[in-house]
Fold:
Amino acid sequence: MADAVLARLPGPLRALALKHREWLKFAVVGGTAFLVDNTVFYGLKLTILEPKPVTAKVIAVLVATIVSYVLNREWSFRTRGGRERRHEAALFFLVSGVGLVLSSAPLWISRYAFRLEVPDVSLVTQEIADFVSAQVIGTLIAMVFRFWAFRKWVFPEEKTQSGSVLLASAPDSTDEAA
Structure:
């Protein structure tokens, strides 16, 4: 499917997409995790965790993080590595824990510092503030942090024995480049 999309792109745009394929794959995984996050967040927030939106957000981010790990490991950063899976997974979830704090902080600030909650504001205002703070601002802050931290610590370039960096190999025919 990715090859079909790439074939339709004009030459310069195709070259740009191939050059930044890792970032594009990360963005697709992020979009998928975003959908999982929203589905779980609103599923919980509008039902059993209605009075506890921050708890709903934390649970949603945890579920989305598990999905994100599997997709990032197996697709986005599959040409990187050199770490044991346990070590890599531990670093991934540590970085994601920081991302969880970063993505939940704007919602906490919106609700409890700015008091953008019923009865202080209308239900519509509360829901818009929740969406903007948790799903837009929090997600963007956490995304930038995670991409940087994943490349730096979790899925670093593999090093050779001399200590020089071994560039990630070019995608083979089984790689569906973004």
In short: Residues 160-178 have pLDDT under 50 and may be disordered.
